[in-house]
Amino acid sequence: MESSSSGSCVQGTVYHWIVLFAVWLCGSQHVLSQKTTLEPKDKFLLSDPPIGLFDPIEISPSVLPHNPNPVEPLSPMYPNYTSYDPVLTGKCHVNFSALSYTIDKTASDCSIPLAPLVADVICCPQVNSLMNIFQAAYGSGNDTLALNQASANACFSDIMSILASKGANTNIPELCTLRPSNLTDAACPVKDIASFEKIVNVSKLIDACSSVDPLKECCRPVCQPAIAEAAIHISSGGANMFGSSSIPGSVAGIDVVSDCKGVVHSWLSMKLSSEEANSAFRVLSGCKVNKVCPLEFDEPSSVVKACAKASSSTPSCCAALHSYIGTRQKQIFVTNLQAINCATMFGSMLQKAGVVEDIYGLCDIDLKDFSLQAFGQQGCLLRSLPTDIEFDNTTGISFTCDLSDNIAAPWPSSSSVQSLSLCAPEMSLPALPVSPKSGSSGTSRTGIGVLLPLVFLTTTISI
Ligand SMILES: *[C@@H]1O[C@H](CO)[C@@H](O)[C@H](O)[C@H]1NC(C)=O
Ligand SMILES: *[C@@H]1O[C@H](CO)[C@@H](O)[C@H](O)[C@H]1NC(C)=O
Ligand SMILES: *[C@@H]1O[C@H](CO)[C@@H](O)[C@H](O)[C@H]1NC(C)=O
Ligand SMILES: *[C@@H]1O[C@H](CO)[C@@H](O)[C@H](O)[C@H]1NC(C)=O
Ligand SMILES: *[C@@H]1O[C@H](CO)[C@@H](O)[C@H](O)[C@H]1NC(C)=O
Ligand SMILES: *[C@@H]1O[C@H](CO)[C@@H](O)[C@H](O)[C@H]1NC(C)=O
User: Fold this and answer.
1) Distance between CA atoms of 145 and 314, rounded to whole angstroms?
2) Which residues span the domain enclosing 361?
3) What is the pTM of this model?
4) 244 CB less than 6 Å from ligand 1?
């Protein structure tokens, strides 16, 4: 129902697909080399009908996904871990079963094989949300909004053990730059609920954040400024508590406000249901995630050399461009908006260095070229709205790709830069992301399959 109505109200150039991954894990310690030659029969498959047609990004004439080799579905990926009872420290006094909704979601979003590939876009935003919700659960019986260091150490360890027991990557602290101290918000002077509610206009905060609109929050933020305002209030409200301890000004100030934001998040988690809080935090993270290009483009001198001269030959220019982009994309999944940011950023670098022609167009560079590549010809861009990894025992592990990745990368120009205001397009997203589950249980799907060949994963699953 949901998928068919959203499908019919938006004339789509963009397809959402459920992507089922059969991921091959190799024990090797290397990060995968994208030049790995693969037998087509090793493919990593992916095939399932589209679950809706949306039109999230309106750039340039759309190009329908070319789908050269529809194949019959292969068996989906089933995680081969078995969950077990974690060994806990016994020093973290929290009813973890009350947090199972958030913990289960986090474990699947950070599942062993996929966590490194989706760290910034799926796993870490969800882990951060869990941290906030955990802090609130811990504190609610104790009039506090953050943990002391000793409890934080124990609880952090317990949380990681529980996640690992449910199949999450054990590398989360490194992937997400997370430490026990993230649970303490040590620098914020206000941590007890009573003082918090005295200082902060709580009704205003609740109004702004109780239901965060995923379509508007990134462009016309309502909750984010309310959180910032509350954080600034409590950070100065307790300023005198620093007494004479002379922490140098600006750096400490940033820490204080940032830790106070953690306290505000914790308070919100206490007031909202786990589901509401989780989805609010994921939207807020999504706004941050989509603003940046996660790839680093160092001096593209090889491309400039091959492409800057009017006399340069197209094949050598395109070869240089493809090879450069191939080495930049870091075998991570990016969102469609991140890919646009990357294309724009890199294009501007090239223009500054003297490349005048639209070499994206000349060389058929698509947005998906900035994402993890499978077989060098297909990619998967995640949607800009928060996405989760889904697991069920009939479809295996899946997440939703946005096959707008076959649209051409926009070459920056004065006019396209203007139309690339990332807000306007965000507005055209469907009001509710269709969950892969509801999509797959629907009856109105058309049977188009897409093949994403094997991503040969040689993940570094460390310690
Ligand atoms: C899971 O897969 C990995 C890599 O293929 C293998 O080393 C491990 O033994 C498997 N575990 C189970 C429980 O099958
Ligand atoms: C822990 O939480 C669960 C679910 O909310 C509840 O059923 C259970 O009684 C709680 N256990 C304790 C010891 O409070
Ligand atoms: C409750 O707070 C007190 C004082 O802040 C602290 O000493 C105690 O350990 C806390 N209790 C729990 C269960 O964290
Ligand atoms: C956790 O703490 C580290 C260092 O203390 C910081 O860099 C990181 O941003 C924090 N993470 C979150 C989600 O606050
Ligand atoms: C709290 O904020 C609301 C606006 O959202 C305002 O009407 C109200 O007066 C504020 N309360 C206090 C005590 O400042
Ligand atoms: C799938 O999971 C459900 C509940 O977790 C279980 O009852 C069912 O037997 C499972 N099906 C298969 C095919 O494993």
Assistant:
1) 60
2) 299-454
3) 0.74
4) no
